[in-house]
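Database export, one record per block. Field names are fixed; values are copied verbatim from the stored entry.
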Amino acid sequence: MNQKQLIEIWNNLSEVEISKEGKLHFSNSGGAFSWKKRYFILKSNLLAIFQDKSHAKESNAKEIIVLHSSILIGYSNSISYYKKKVFQITRTDQSILYLCSDSQKENEDWVHTLRNARKKK
């Protein structure tokens, strides 16, 4: 499924309850200067990435990731963000999205919630 189709599906999920949402630091490379802050919303097994919360209200997602059993979610052993432990989503094409919240407890909650979302269809 391409991003355009995923965005259309996302826009039809207005009645689906949000499992988790919030601001996260993210990077596609884990490099020191590649981190950006974005707003993430998880509904069912779809994780949407927005520029900020106002773009989320407009359903203007930058990207949507379908979480399924072949997506790996765990902690990075090699990447950190300002000495904070980072978690990662490894996609089926082996590209990695590194993520970090402002607290370790929040990171743990995101990992737990994302892993549970993989089980949903």
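Remark 1: Helices lie at 3-11, 53-57, 104-118.
Remark 2: The two ends are 15 Å apart (CA to CA).
End of record.
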